[in-house]
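Cont'd.
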Amino acid sequence: MALKPQLNYNEELETEYSRLFILAFPNKAVQPFASYWLESDHSLMGNSTLEIKHKMAEHGIEVAENSGLLPDHIVSELEFIAYLASQDDEKARQTQRQLLEQHCAHWMPLFIEALNKANPMPYYQLAADFLKQLIPSEMKES
Amino acid sequence: MSTHDHFDPSRRAFLGATAGGTALTIAGLPSQALARINAPHDPEKLKETTEVFGFCDMCYWRCGLKIRSRDGRAVKIDGNPEHPNNWGVVCGKGNAGLMVAYAPNRLKHPMKRVGERGEGKWKPISWDEALETTAKELLKVKKKYGPQALALIGHGSWEKPYHRLAHAFGTPNTTSPVFGLCCGPRGLSNMMIMGRNLTGNETLDLENCKYFLMMGRNVTESLHNGETLGWVNGVANGAKVVYFDPRYSITASKADEYYAIRPLTDHAFLLAMINVVINEELYDKKFIAEYVVGFDELKQRVQKYTPEWAEPITEVPAKDIRRLAKEMAAKAPSVFVYSPRRLTRTSNDFGTGMSITILNTLFGVWGRKGGVFTPQKYKVPEIDLPEFEHATAHRIDSGGDFNYEQPEIPLAHIQDEEGKYHRADGAGVMGRWPIANPQYGLTNEMWRAMAEQKPYPIRALMTAGGNGFLNSTNYDIIRKALETVDFYVASDVIPNEMNMYADILLPEASYLERYDDLQVGGAREGYVAVRMPAMKPLHDTRDAWTICKQLADRMGLSAYFPHDSIKELLDDRLKKAGSSLAEIEKVGILKIPADPVKNFPLDHGGKLKIKTPGGSTKAELIPGMLKQMGFDKALDYVEQVRPNEDEFHMTFGRIGFHTHARTQDNVWTADLMRENVLWIHPEQAAKRGIKEGDLVKVSDRKGRSGEIKAKVTARIRKDTIFMVHGFGHWDKRMTTANGQGVADSNLASYAVDPHVGSMSMGLSLVKVEKV
Amino acid sequence: MTKKYVMLADTIRCIDCKACVVACRAEWETPMGYSRDWVKQAEFVKEDGSPRVMLFPGRCQHCDEAPCIEACPSGAAYKREDGMVLQDNEICSGCELCVPACPYDARWLNPETNTISKCTFCQPRVDQGLQPACVQTCVGRALIFGDMNDPSSEVSQLLKEKTWVKLTTDEVNIGPNHYYYTAGEALPDEVMPKLHDRHLAGKVMENVVNPVGAIGIGAMLLTFVGAGVLKMIGRRNEVSTSENQEDK
């Protein structure tokens, strides 16, 4: 099964998305990849990316080839967590817990902090706030 | 098997005795544990990898590679020991190529400009939209102004398909900086005199050379790995090195004799050398008699250029000039007068280049051991292509060389007789820059053509890699050009100051993630090498060939991209050459073995085949074609600028682990050097109260300036400053490189060689003061 | 005959391109801020006022009498028969006592693994018949590696043909297995090894005499030894478990 992100934007939002997460102006881009935050050289496709990729594979999941995303892109990771939450077995629960506690908890707070510093427009500010709440609440749930 | 004397309990006994407690005695530990500690250590094991072949794209030497991958990503870049460009070695930049693929800042998605050009506001779009928009806009320009209104500027990874696309589109205006900003005067002088380029992957028999007379050519830091290794081998084999450079570089540290020559005066020294070699009959008489014309004329012309004349100009003692000439003659023909790779410094680089070629020719180095070998070529036919509207624009497969041959097209096609347009940059055009190469063009003049919209409108720009700001020296022209064109599409792997101005950004897959057209080279061996992807393209990137094909399809130019994939194209070409893609993928490179008889004809009773652009079958010391145009006056020395008492010559160059303006944002190479520094002599520093590491302001006569840290060192002349090229980025997307150091290109001169049309970047004079 | 691996660095061939540094980083996934090898550039002015530059590739010297091994309380640092000084990170407790013990500054605590990292002469590669990564990549072919007990090896030939020196001083003379060729030029002071104040062997001996201090160090050592032992036990259990499973 392949994850394909559903993206619906208008131009203002698209420009803001680009400013925040792809090409910086005038701020530094808030890189939405776990690897960036976890690797000592801020590289992408680090060992942390592979960890996620393997975890996904264990559950029969992979990122769609034409999505342009990497396994540790925040969209991929959130979709994966959502998928795990929708599954009704212990293994999925376990993976979800592991993912949140041992992976997301390490990089998403840094991502959220950087996102807040970048003065995002309300839509993304909301997303940042929501994400901030999400992780601990999900951890509690699982 | 491991030994365990390191854990001899008796050696630890003193701890037990003095601590007075059983807690510390080894005997106090469970004996089970003790037995386990003495068990052998498991040695670390290498992890499994798969391997593909490729060639590097960090610089233009293009070393042969083997790339190891695991788990869908490349993990290590090694050299291909079979490749004549590097014989298995890989420099720091090459090893850091992984960080091009894994760069957080690389271009990931097609983007469309929102807001003002250059403002830096974008929105992500689909490939379909990006390609459609590009095709639509280019066709709009073609309809309104004609195909010649499109300019293509390259300097990226394997830009060949972009050139093909642009030629298919019908424009003659394709250019790469290599000629006009770098090797032009050097390649051209070899071409005119000898009918050989001697640029690109230079065909030098370095290991066997016994005397290197180096006019700059900082071969240990301006790395071209196979060439560097060859030179190091030559030195280890006993070659004498005499090195001229206002700066004591790493190469200087390996020289037998080092001359801190006055900047810009190499030509004077070389003319004096020619004078001595001729007057004292130190030349190769047999070689001259058989292969050279113009000797007597040259002799007359150089009489005034005595060593005594050269000494006050160059600060090289006359007696040394005479001595060096004699020493070289004694070692000839296994000698080499080494040109700098980039010969775009003085107001007469063409003259300098010609003097170097003349001197080499007088020593008879061509076709001989320790000199210049004759390469072999692995013939790989091109795919079947329809005619191009502008036949001069067809980029000849370079065979490892930057090919400066004038293609065999009658002048009529270059002239505007049948409604076909000249090149806008005037390269190869009578009345403008007739001897400039019409394949690579004059990139500097192309930018100017766009800025001034002369000689005719250029309304669309396409770039494939490259950085027009950091590689050029007149930012006003670049900016004007970028703001003037109706449409600008940029294709690249990394963001930079130039592609910041694009209307459409096309993100390219890196060289580790794609196939590209074949590398066809000429060394002692003839060879063809393949580039294979070590992993799938990351993010939403596409390889260059696919981008060009998809654009071609949308512009009615599919006939020029007849294959469905680059793999098909490769297989097509290789099958025509008697091989196949499957076969070359197994070995990475196919070779015709080195053949001493072919490589060194004059050492094996063979003949040198010469054909100059002027049509001569002998080397023309003073090319007839140049005389016809009055360009032979380049041979005469032209006085160069000198700094005032409080000024410095502004010089720039390379360091081994950075190159061009593209490695400064690479996390691994930036880690080795984050910013450039300004080299200044201790006496000059003391005068200005400058200490090591101090921030200084450097400014030129045009009022351009920058702030940079000082390196106070005796390794630079008192009248000269130096900085490593490629720093001073201001593109905020380059989060590692942004704001680090100073852009040398913004302090360098913008003058044009009067004969070639290439740039003269070394004429700038600057002041330095403490901040 | 047992092997004796040595590294030769020809400083005339070295061009300070840092290929060895980057190749090593890639090969062993070294985190930023650290490196297992390096090239030191010594820049100075000669008596006649002329500038001079000398280049010195460096790494762990795999010393005959490695003080790091002596300093290691858990036994993680060890010397193999073929001369390689290696690190068993299954039992390394990350105590860092070995770090200042090295006068060549070759050892450091890897923050990603919390164990010690250093040059291993690319033991995993060499064991498979490959050259160390730095040697293979070296642009000037300045690094040469091999068995000096094999008379037909390249290192043996080179050691015979030219005069090679080692980085030793009166204070530090512990049998490094890294040789340098400088064509007879004197070694600059800045590349020479230096003892560190916290060099363990000396300190421990001191504290042995001072009983109050000794208890402190003793307890610390027990902890490290214990931790190392526990790690070793843990790994052994893992190994034996998996071995048992394989037998099934």
